[in-house]
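Chain X:
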Amino acid sequence: MAFLGDVQRLYERTYGRDAGIELESCVVGPRRCAELAARSGDAHAEMSDWARFFYYVEDANLRLALFYADEMIETLERRDPRRALSESNVLPFLVFAEEASHALHTTFAFGDGGPERVSGEEFLAELELMARIDAYLLLRHFVRSLAAPLARADLAWVRHQALTRWDVTYDDPRLAERYGGAARLASAFVDRLEAVGPRRQLAELRAFRGLPMEEKRSRAVALKDASPDGIAGARAPRQPARGFPRPSG
């Protein structure tokens, strides 16, 4: 799964961290996924049927597992996001990116603070927040490589796909806070990134990653309250999302 390696390298370069493990070696099949789901309940599993991420600590070691459904992988192979992005492949692309983000941020956090750092509901909320930010940045990176220069409409499409569409209603208040809350907090933080410009973006992003969830939440809320309307808040068009074919030549 070479694409997973490509995404991992992009994340590692972005955060200036080496995960110390190849995510490709953590990919499991349906049987092992079912075993891990039965073992952990819903505590460490994504709800999507397309992909799931599991982790646990055993003998002071972090264990990771990633599951990607054949259907999703086949879609990404037929419609390679490195060549074009549209409604036909953007959702599988985002789900793929989010699971890789979960895995890498778990290794980063475990390296920072050991088992205690990766336990509890707050850490799960933190993983969702970072995944929303990473999904935005990765989709933006791919769209820019396909449709440079990045136009206002392109940025609005990226924002809608990676952030706005995930702020939906959940029956379970806990899930509403974890998933919907992550989308809203991530929106505020990426507005900040767009405002500071390329030279400061990496420093802002890396500093934000290192904060505990309580401080991440406080910072994002403060940014949301202080942020004026700008280009990053442009409304996505109502028509079907445009594709981004690779330019010829």
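Chain Y:
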Amino acid sequence: MTAIYKRELRSYFITPIGYVFAGMFLTVSGLLFSWLVLSADNSGAYSYAKISNYFVYLLFVFSVLIPLLTMKLLSEEKKQKTEQLLLTSPVSLTGVVIAKYLAALTIFAATLLVNSLNYILLYIYGNPNAAVILSNILGLFLIGASFIAIGLFLSSVTENQLIAAVSSIAVIVALLLISLLADTIEKEFFRVILKWFSVIDRYAPFTLGYFDIPAIIYFVSFTAVFLFLTVRVYEKRRWS
């Protein structure tokens, strides 16, 4: 498992993917931060609404950038005919999937950590609530972890990296827009169900500085479900 993790982690640095992801993430995030947060007046009147909007916009940035990390993880193995090596390796299929998942998560977490240096500027222009910043970072990490699990699963069902990326973007955007769809439905029963799955609604408490335990459990469970489904795909392939 460790060998697979190191191999996948190394692959992000011997190909442009890791650099493209980190560069685009930090650039877009920096521009959004300057536009939405630091554009407020110097009286410290940048509002928490603007900070919340910044973090919500980052979720949509994730929808495009995270598939860059996941599109090749398993589809490339199938395309290059190295999939059989994984299926017959002494490492369990669960170990293989988790190793690849952790490699992508490491790149994402490291980039998110570097991006967090932006928030130091808030202390120069005012006196922000540290709980709000930390809870938002945690929320972003949990959502990013969930999106990586989705991308990994979709990468396991196709050998075409482009299809894996596009389908991941479509699913992630759909999850982000469920809240808007729910607001258009009149029947409360269906509206409540849709909002239960809504990423935006689950993320909302974090934007207010709350470490929402049900939301944390939701995102962890969401991630576990897609990792489980990915393992099942490979178990079926092993015996087919």
